[in-house]
Amino acid sequence: MAVVGHTAGPELSAHTGPLGALARAQYSALSRMRWSMFRNSLRSNRGAMELGARSVTLILYSLMGLGLGFGLGLGAFAMTADNQLQILPALFWAVFLLWQVMPITLASFQEQFDMAGLLRFPVGFGAFFLLHLIFGLVDISTIMGALACLGIWVGISLARPGLSAWTALALGIFAVFNVFLVRAIFAWIDRWLAQRRTREIVGAIFFVALLSLQLLNPAFHQGDHPGNHGEISSKTRQQGMRYLMLANSAQRWLPPGLAASTVERASCQRPGEAFEGMGVLGLYMLAAGSVLAARLRAEYRGENLGEAPSRKKAERHSGKWLIEGSGPMGAVMEKELRILTRALPLLYGLLAPLLMVFVLSGLYSKGASIAGHPLPIALLISLAYAMVGFTQLFYNNLGAEGPGIQILFLSSTPIRTVILAKNLFHAVLFIVDAVLVCLVASLRFSLPSPLVLVATAAWLLFALLIHLAAGNVFSLNMPYRINLGRMTRQRGSQASTLLSMLIQLAVLGAGAGVFALCSVFDRLWLAMPIFFAMAAVAAAVWLRVLGNVDALANRRRDSLISTLVKTD
Amino acid sequence: MEIAAIQTHGLTRRFGALTAVEDVTLSVAQGQFFGFLGPNGAGKSTTIKMLTGLLEPTSGSIEILGQPFSAGSLDLKRQIGVVPEGMALLGRLTAPEYLRFVGRMYGLDNATTNRRTEELLDFMHLADESKKLVTDFSHGMQKKLALAAAVIHGPKVLFLDEPFEGVDAIAAGMLKAMLQGMISRGATIFLTTHVLEIVERLCSHVAIISQGRLVANGSLEELRAGVASSLPGAESSQRLTLEQIFLSIVGADAQEPAQELSWLS
Q1: What is the rounded CA–CA span in Å between residue A313 and residue B133?
Q2: Radius of gyration over alpha carbons of chain A, in Å?
Q3: Residues of B in contact with A40 (CB under 8 A)
Q4: pLDDT of residue A4
Q5: pLDDT grade, residue A539 (50/70/90)?
Q6: DSSP A18-71
Q7: Which of A10, A14, A30 is facing B109, going by the closest CB pair?
Q8: B89: which chain A residues are within 8 Å (Cβ-Cβ)?
Q9: Is residue B161 within 8 Å of B189, Cβ to Cβ?
């Protein structure tokens, strides 16, 4: 036995910081580890499918990023060539919002490495910070943000080559600021979500923010009645201009404005002022980096946010049932409800459609008509968006079970009953969400005709049943373990996400297509029976899938258990 | 005076309202096989996490090999090996890949890492499973791999959190021999386990933690003598097993009498 009890052999110095020999060896070890994990993941069919889905996703988003970069580059070129650099901040703000908002919408779509596992090794804080930045640097938001910045740089450089170096410097600092900020936001959100009290506070703030957004739109259109449209619009326009000027003077001191003003000042041959702007931008970058470092420092020191109950004996009480009725169906629904109320990311997904309705209302509230009729598709799109929030619930309905999946197989209740209970619970939840979306949409777009309403309801029934049926198949064939207390650092399954997105697009396309065809032939009433017929077919498919659930679950039992229980 | 391998002063960790570990002061001499016992939820794993830099103490201090220890003590981290709670394995690697990763994370050069990886796989009887992913290992095999990873860099202090849980008798015997070999070469082992027979057989010193507080600390003989003198029947201290000592100190007698379960009677 040559190893145990002996002192360590040839070792590298631990004292040379994040770029020292030990740190470099650790980076190399981590890279090899990631490569091995990637290579090993291809051993299974599922792994190969995941790789395919990831490649498709990356290509799609890279193409989107290239398109965005091209568009922004074109805009930057035009602004620079026309000497209209005072409107350049608009482009930088677009990039900023994309960089910061996109990761929230893609949180469950991207895999991140949990760095806490490295703390038992002699990893210095500098290396820990650097690794946190490097892992996930090739995520979708960074790729798109970087392509957008590249587009702006190319656009400005082509129009005025003399501004190339200034633009590169400003964009470089701006990009690093964005990377720091988005990481800091997520690191803090994860920290807040880890504890019940802060989770509730964040949830309350989020809910108030959503309500505020809903109230913002009517406030903007206050007094915007058809009768006095012209007069009030002019007043509103003046008021709006005042707000806009105020916002413009404020945004100049914020990072996107500072980055843009650096380029603008450099173009006016005012290098001192350009350096000044860049300096303040650099300070923002350092501030964002410090906020991130403060969070990571706490993690590095061995922070544990787990909540342990007090050792004092709890009062004995039997607890209240949230869902009445005994038996497995009631038990499963009760469990689902309790888990849902404790999972902020899921609640976010369910409430996000209201936010989308607000956004859509901005697009359609004025021109919400084709030839004077309310746009039936607006409601359809709102409801389709509502369904996106249910993707994880529908398509990975066993993911939150974790090791508890074994109980489902051990109990005398057939898996079909469990899945049926989950389907019913999710359907009820979706109907509540859909009614809320309809109410908000009706207030924004004006009330749709009863015909459109009934036809949309029929489409909704069809869509719901299709998603439940497909979701059950996906949940049994491509499950993945999820941690409902986290926004980031989730494993996820890109194949499942991508395929479910395709199904959602197809379902929406079918609805929009039927509506469009019926509108073209001026037979909107026909949409109703067509959707009901489609719903009947979907119901048959769902029942058939449900009938096969037990057989499928038994066939997939080993894989299901190992996937949901296994060591990461 | 010889420097202690592990020394804590007033070590405390709170989680909100709960004080998981309170004012723990203990000293483990170099070359000692130290058993750290306690009932479920007593604070054993929390203590190990603090001693290995995985959890920041709320207050108190830790010294390892005579030097103050914190999460940033890189040189000290290279002197300690850990089998943490949950083992912290990477399921999508094979055993050789995982050991090579760990070796390099501890700063061993490639040649040494490779050589030790092979030796450890042979020693743990895992060499035949070198193509298998860790996630497909049995629980016992995962334990053996976690232990192999904890010793690949030749640590002077080894922290083991339930290392024998799920390990078969043959492997357990082999691991015990390995650990005793480490002790004979001067290493220090800090062990937590619920298997009191193992502690009785391996450990020279034992500490018992209950509800976050250290309630006993000393050699097995000292604990036996202390418990024997406090027992009304004055049973011979030589006949007391560690289980009896443990139950006596932790106060199982004082706990509520077991109630009969109505539906099982």
Answers
A1: 43
A2: 27
A3: 92-94, 97, 133
A4: 45
A5: very high
A6: GGSHHHHHHHHHHHHHHHHHHHHHTTSHHHHHHHHHHHHHHHHHHHHHHHHHHH
A7: A10
A8: 567
A9: no
With 50 as the cut, is the pLDDT of residue A563 above it? yes
- Tokens 């930088």, located at residue: A92
Nearest CB partner across the interface for A119, out of B53, B134, B152: B53
If you measure CA to CA, which chain B residue comes closest to A40? B92
B-proximal residues of A, 120-179, CB under 8 Å? 120-125
CA-CA distance, A448 to A454, in Å (whole number)?
A: 10
pLDDT value at B46 more than 80? yes
Spatial distance between the Cα atoms of A98 and B45, rounded to a whole number of angstroms = 43
Whether the CB-CB separation of B119 and A3 falls below 8 Å is answered with: yes
Residue A33 with chain B: CB contacts under 8 Å: 90, 93, 97, 101
The domain locations on chain A are 17-32+48-211+247-301, 328-565
pLDDT tops 80 at residue A102: no
pLDDT tens, A58-76? 888 888 889 999 999 999 9
Is residue B31 within 8 Å of B54, Cβ to Cβ? no
At residue A222, the pLDDT reads: 55
Mutate to test the interface with A, among B48, B101, B109, B142 (most CBs of A within 10 A): B101
A44 touches chain B (CB under 8 A): no
What is the ipTM score, two decimals? 0.75
A32 touches B at CB < 8 Å: yes
Residues of A in contact with B185 (CB under 8 A): 4-6
Residue indicated by tokens 């929406």: A508
